[in-house]
Amino acid sequence: MHDIRWIREHPEAFDRGLARRGLPAQAAEIIALDDKRRRSVRLTQEAQTEANATSKLIGYAIAHDNQGEAAALKAKVADLKDRIHEENVRAVAVAGELKLLLEVIPNLPLDEVPDGPDADHNREVRRHGEPRAFDFAPKQHFELGEALGLMDFATAVKLSGARFVILKGKLARLERALGQFMLDLQTGEHGYVEVNPPYLVRDETMYGTGQLPKFSDDLFHTTDGRWLIPTAEVSLTNLVRESILEETGLPIRVTALTPCFRAEAGAAGKDTRGMIRMHQFNKVELVSITTPEASRDELEGMTLAAEEVLKRLDLPYRVMQLCAGDMGFGARMTYDLEVWLPGQNAYREISSCSVCGDFQARRMEARYRPRGGGALRYVHTLNGSGLAVGRALIAVLENYQQADGTIVIPEVLRPYMDGSEIIGADG
């Protein structure tokens, strides 16, 4: 959510930010609505002041036995009360209209974010590792998993429909090992506190992180009015909703391994084979709550924490800074980690780390009390994948495949796999 006061003071900067997002100017419309709201509030206050003063005169008129004047004054008060009610109704309606407009406008990009309308304009920041040179034609993950008899899409379709998968044996255990390894790394070395949050949340929780109202079609809704989380970012970030924190307790860093549920309403025809784009998948999420001054550095630290997973798995990857037109709704700046998939001969996203500024905090009413005193301030929120477990599984399968179709288990995961080194058809 945007700060209406900031928009009033910086209309040109606001519209420039929207233009970088590929959106039309909206500052004038927003300010005009706010002017209407302010006018109704002012008229309400003026009428209330006049009504209070007139009410006092009624008592004076009655005390002096001036019934005619008292009746006229009572009529005036009644008229003022009608006017107060009308202006109140008008102010509430305009405020609602203004809120509806503001809550679907995305966050503004930081100045350092590159311009551009789509992914073709993203900027490579760095890359790590060299893609392996195979002496055979590398297969895609679903070819490998199905040949091993440990990845079953056909039965998943019978159970749930498209974009689901059943993993079996050592492949199921490998996915579990990946999630456990990621959690252990982030909690043991990077200062994140593990949380086991709800997977079902209320409207206001989804609203707080920006999924509602704009992206309801991408979400799964239950019969009792709750929503299945599309990412643990929703639950973790809302841990501080409607809170006043102490600056001395910041930053707050939390992580969770959860299933994520996405309708993929806009993904028709994309990645229809395999596990790249699923309705249900597991992900380790990283969330930070911090001060405005520290949030930019916190983004760098979060990104490095996510990168460390790929480094320990010895998977080639690159870091991309997203352009303004390719960033998510709530982000001010985003780094994507893209892992090399030899079966696709391409880098594919496996993590997205974003700083959101106070955009989500305003929706959640999450503030902190500065160490040196003074007015309460909104916190800054950050979120990132550390990592998407299913996509990490894909990357391991494709990068560690052998000519005979077996999969070498990365060394760092072997303690989670009872020391096994290979996944074969007997898995």
Would you mind describing this structure in some detail?
The chain folds into two domains: 4-102, Helix Hairpins; 119-423, Bira Bifunctional Protein, Domain 2 (BirA Bifunctional Protein, domain 2, 2-Layer Sandwich). It has twelve helices and 18 strands. The protein has helices at residues 4-9, 11-20, 27-63, 67-102, 141-147, 153-160, 169-189, 203-209, 233-237, 295-312, 359-364, 389-399; strands at 123-128, 151-152, 166-167, 193-194, 200-201, 220-221, 227-228, 244-246, 252-261, 280-290, 317-321, 333-341, 346-355, 367-369, 377-378, 380-388, 407-408, 422-423. Strand 12 (333-341) and strand 13 (346-355) form a beta hairpin.
List keywords for this structure.
427 residues, alpha+beta, Helix Hairpins, BirA Bifunctional Protein, domain 2, 2 domains, eight-stranded mixed beta sheet, three-stranded antiparallel beta sheet, 12 helices, 40% helix, elongated
Q: Specify the CATH class of the largest domain.
A: Alpha Beta
Mean pLDDT across all residues, rounded?
Answer: 94
Q: State the separation between the terminal residues, measured CA to CA.
A: 50 Å
Q: Please indicate the percent range of residues in DSSP E strands (runs of 2 or more).
A: 15-25%
Give me the CATH fold name of the largest domain. BirA Bifunctional Protein, domain 2
